[in-house]
Amino acid sequence: MDENKKRIIPLLPLRGILVFPSMVLHLDVGRSKSVQALEKVMLDDHEILLSTQTEISIDEPTEEQLHKVGTLATIKQMLKLPNGTIRVLVEGLKRAKIERFLENDEMFEVEMQVLSDDTEEVTPAEIALMRSTLKYFEQYIKLSKKVSAETLAVVSDITEPGRLADVIASHLPLKIAEKQELLECTSAEDRLLKIIDILNNEKEVLGLEKKISQRVKKSIEKTQKEYYLREQMKAIQKELGDRDGKTDEVSTLQERIKEAGMPEHVEEKALKELERYEKMPPS
């Protein structure tokens, strides 16, 4: 296919998701126009344009509610589910720009043109950027633990700057607007710079999250320890008859006995009874 040549192709609107070139994933499709578009491309060359909606809540998007830069993709598998939904496995191929929408009541159909990445030989500056990007990505993987070591090994073998940026971007927790910005960036060098900036920010955020988590853990441990010690003290006091709770009362009674002017043998007996009362466990 001549990439500089404009082409008529069905379009599949996406809600809350964006597909980068080189990205492979499953999509569940249920909207009538989208199903019609899939059925048409499956009878043709299996290629379709993927464009993300500007608003996720809209069920029937208009032309204005679709991003003009999307991803030309190929349908690798298609399966009709019992509930009528179609599950497709798509692979992103290249960036593409919508030139115009065609009139078609059954589906979205557009005239589009492929947006080429830099096709010149990889420059020393791009090689340096790729190395820096991989270094930051490795640090991100160690901190986040959401990306496998196998992914890093696969990414490390990529030799094209643009593809490296796209594959790494597909593994980052970015908002749709941030992903769209990267998709619309056709310069591989600029995309790598953006990825490095994103990875650096993620590294700082993950570092702060780790510190906060450690503080919370220490606070919880301290609270649990203090609670355990309080409960332990209560148990000890109960076992000893909870003397501390009677101290003031016993002291007052002792003073009253001594001030009452009782005969010596009566006072002695009263104090013994008071001592016995003090040792009695609480009811």
What does this structure look like?
This protein is α+β, with helices and mostly antiparallel strands and 283 residues long. The protein has three domains: 7-115, LON domain-like (Archaeosine Trna-guanine Transglycosylase, Chain: A, domain 4), CATH 2.30.130.40; 124-209, Methane Monooxygenase Hydroxylase, Chain G, domain 1 (Up-down Bundle), CATH 1.20.58.1480; 243-279. 49% of the residues lie in helices and 20% in strands. It has eight helices and six strands. It has helices spanning 32-42, 124-144, 149-156, 161-169, 176-183, 188-239, 247-259, 264-279, and strands at 7-14, 24-29, 47-52, 69-80, 86-101, 108-115. Strands 1-3-4-5-6 form a five-stranded mixed barrel. Helix 2 (124-144) runs antiparallel to helix 3, helix 2 packs parallel to helix 6 and helix 4 runs parallel beside helix 6 (188-239). The longest helix has 52 residues, at 188-239. The radius of gyration is 36 Å and the shape is elongated. The mean pLDDT is 88.
